[in-house]
């Protein structure tokens, strides 16, 4: 039996029941198992999915209270478990590491992580910036690279270009030589343009009009939907015939495929949580984030952050900023010393 005084404790935010505020408690520091590393968490991003988990409106995330939420992590390796030779104590890392499927999330001072999910943190980014990338970049990569194989010379349309995934998708498609367009509200046009896309105000411009204006009526080579619902239906009307591809990160619900079928175009969906929930292809997440590291260090990838500072003490304020859409960029919580 381990003496109580030898157990190390950490602060963590815990979801005790759906629809309630998170509670900050003391809990034991986890030990890394085989293939895992123990990471001191410096920063944790808040995604819209995190807020849905808190409300109990994300059954696909397979979260059961009590649970430590937080999907995205940036921090420093403290120790490594058996069979880990890729990382060493002191390494700065980032990844999409937990917060779903019963896996401890990143709203804690320490987290034991499957090393396959991690990549070295980009040298050019702060801990806060690195924490903002994993889910958004992996989602964008799986859509635009794994599914759509975006390449130079193509015209790419991103729906929701000012959102967390959309902003990264614009930068990724641009880095691959595509000409990028992105839809958003009137208030988001400047942010979309700053990311490198031609901004389209979907509230003022019908689909047929912007397809005619920007593609001569032919349609876009690739349409990436980050919004879902009626926006996915619009995507089927905006894609190019025969060779066009529509990819959605929110392809849920019922949709008529007739417009897509008449174009002989194709559709595919992205479910970024799958490796976390199933344990399969986790190494792909690490590989994708290594690509993000190269792009960031080349100056081709920079996350857009909300400037407000949050800690574990005001974690619910951070969640509310995302849920109420008052944030002006990705919300990041400083869990440890983010300036490490």
Automatic annotation (TrEMBL):
<keyword id="KW-0521">NADP</keyword>
<dbReference type="InterPro" id="IPR020843">
    <property type="entry name" value="ER"/>
</dbReference>
<dbReference type="InterPro" id="IPR036291">
    <property type="entry name" value="NAD(P)-bd_dom_sf"/>
</dbReference>
<dbReference type="Pfam" id="PF08240">
    <property type="entry name" value="ADH_N"/>
</dbReference>
<dbReference type="InterPro" id="IPR011032">
    <property type="entry name" value="GroES-like_sf"/>
</dbReference>
<dbReference type="GO" id="GO:0016491">
    <property type="term" value="F:oxidoreductase activity"/>
</dbReference>
<dbReference type="InterPro" id="IPR051603">
    <property type="entry name" value="Zinc-ADH_QOR/CCCR"/>
</dbReference>
<feature type="domain" description="Enoyl reductase (ER)">
    <location>
        <begin position="19"/>
        <end position="333"/>
    </location>
</feature>
<dbReference type="InterPro" id="IPR013154">
    <property type="entry name" value="ADH-like_N"/>
</dbReference>
<dbReference type="Pfam" id="PF13602">
    <property type="entry name" value="ADH_zinc_N_2"/>
</dbReference>
<protein>
    <submittedName>
        <fullName>Quinone oxidoreductase</fullName>
    </submittedName>
</protein>
């Amino acid at each position: 039996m381990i003496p109580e005084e030898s157990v190390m404790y950490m602060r963590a935010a815990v979801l005790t029941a759906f629809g309630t505020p998170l509670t900050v408690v003391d809990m034991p520091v986890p030990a890394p198992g085989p293939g895992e590393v123990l990471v001191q968490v410096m920063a944790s991003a808040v995604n819209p999915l995190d807020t849905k988990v808190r409300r109990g409106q994300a059954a696909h995330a397979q979260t059961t209270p009590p649970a430590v939420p937080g999907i995205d992590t940036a921090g420093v390796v403290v120790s490594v478990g058996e069979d880990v030779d890729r990382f060493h104590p002191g390494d700065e890392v980032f990844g999409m590491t937990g917060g779903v499927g019963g896996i401890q999330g990143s709203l804690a001072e320490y987290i034991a992580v499957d090393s396959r999910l991690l990549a070295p943190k980009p040298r050019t980014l702060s801990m806060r910036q690195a924490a903002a990338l994993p889910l958004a970049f992996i989602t964008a990569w799986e859509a635009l690279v794994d599914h759509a194989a975006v390449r130079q010379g193509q015209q790419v349309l991103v729906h929701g270009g000012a959102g967390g995934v959309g902003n990264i998708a614009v930068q990724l498609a641009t880095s691959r030589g595509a000409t990028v367009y992105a839809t958003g509200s009137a208030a988001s046009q400047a942010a979309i343009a700053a990311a490198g896309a031609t901004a389209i105000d979907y509230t003022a411009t019908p689909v047929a009009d912007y397809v005619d204006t920007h593609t001569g009526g032919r349609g876009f080579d690739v349409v990436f939907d980050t919004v879902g619902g009626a926006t996915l239906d619009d995507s089927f009307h905006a894609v190019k015939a025969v060779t066009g591809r529509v990819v959605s990160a929110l392809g849920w619900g019922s949709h008529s495929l007739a417009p897509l079928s008449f174009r002989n175009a194709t559709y595919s969906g992205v479910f970024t949580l799958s490796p976390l929930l199933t344990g399969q292809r986790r190494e792909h997440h690490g590989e994708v984030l290594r690509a993000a590291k190269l792009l960031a260090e080349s100056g081709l990838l920079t996350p857009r952050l909300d400037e407000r500072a949050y800690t574990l003490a005001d974690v619910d304020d951070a969640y509310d900023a995302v849920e109420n859409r008052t944030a002006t960029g990705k919300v990041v919580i400083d869990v440890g010393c983010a300036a490490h």
